[in-house]
Write a structure and sequence with these properties.
With 376 residues, the chain is an alpha/beta fold. It is 44% helix and 14% strand. It contains 16 helices and 11 strands. Helix 5 packs parallel to helix 7. The radius of gyration is 20 Å and the shape is globular. The C terminus is likely disordered. Bound molecules: ligand V47. Ligand V47 binds next to strand 6, strand 7 and helix 14.
Length: 376
Amino acid sequence: MTKTALDFIEAKVLAGQRLSFEDGVALLESGDLLWLGGLADLARQRLAGDRVFFVNNRHINHTNVCGNSCKFCAFSAREGSPEAYTMSLDEVLAAARQSLADGITELHIVGGEHPSLPFEYYREMIGALHQLDPAVHIQAFTASEISFFARRANKTVAEVLLELKKAGLGSLPGGGAEIFSERVRGLVCSRKISGRGWLDVMRIAHETGIKSNATMLYGHVESGAERIDHLLRLRELQDQTGGFGSFIPLPFHPANTGLSHLPGSTGIEDLKMLAVSRLMLDNFANIKAFWIMLGVKVAQISLHFGVNDIDGTVVEEKITHAAGAQTGQEISRNELVGLIRAAGRIPVERDTLYNVIHTYEGGKDERRPVEEVEEL
Ligand code: V47
């Protein structure tokens, strides 16, 4: 890519103009990481200022049983196999109870597409969790899971969403999007909902008053053009509904998957992807770095590459850890505050829908002993 083309893109960003498909591909191909990061940082500054969000949350992966056999997934197991597990309602409630005592404000629940669990299992789970603590926001079930529930229960997507909403569902997580390209889906997740199907479920959710996130799984067999196509399809839907709260690019982890011969992404590629996401998704308020997949240090550095959200405390995560993630399972609120401060930003604890719970004012770049942070 010639310098002139990149200069032209830079001028567009400075003028606040929307970037095209060709611009996105050129940005991904550009070799100047710091230039790209600086441009994304400018876009981040305009959209989000110096505040960096995190949430006090807990993930629950209620079952790994799944009939999809996606090649990128190390988490799923066949029904009846020795690795298969399905949590009972009591086990889900016990996991939630444990973290409610620690003050979480969000439960993030995703699992496999279990071929024989009835829809009642999910509706009862949401209802019981909501009763346990009506103030806790339940972000549960990817668009792919919602579509699967509808097919299994012979209901429409809208019916499933409304029943879950009535039971206490707050919003949908962004998983299951993978890469929208039919070519790629044919290679890595041919049994899963199509890209168009995923977007349709999200459109219906947004029209039903249910907000959601969006993700993209990258670093496997997709091309740069297919990544940009994915971003543009999200941008188009966001223009129409405004229902996406954040975008989270997820770097593929190859260990124990059907694609274990692939190397996985590098830190440079991760930072580039986050920066390009910030620049292309001009109608997304938040770009999130999921530290579990990126590693804490890359997630922290990404705060200078367009990112303004570092996800949350998480507590327990099985999907990426099955695929070889080296990160811990949990990070404390104080550690998140320290990481954000050390990056020169203002830590803000948010709820799931980006309402501010607490702004940690004070010295921006000093690191304080962990026990002092709570007292600010
Ligand atoms: O849908 C599966 C991906 C997703 C692997 O909405 C893998 O705030 C990497 O969607 N390597 C689940 N990724 C996680 C997810 C998520 C995470 C954090 C925040 C939010 C949010 C959503 O993980 C799956 C799939 O795309 N995944 N296998 C793997 N081997």
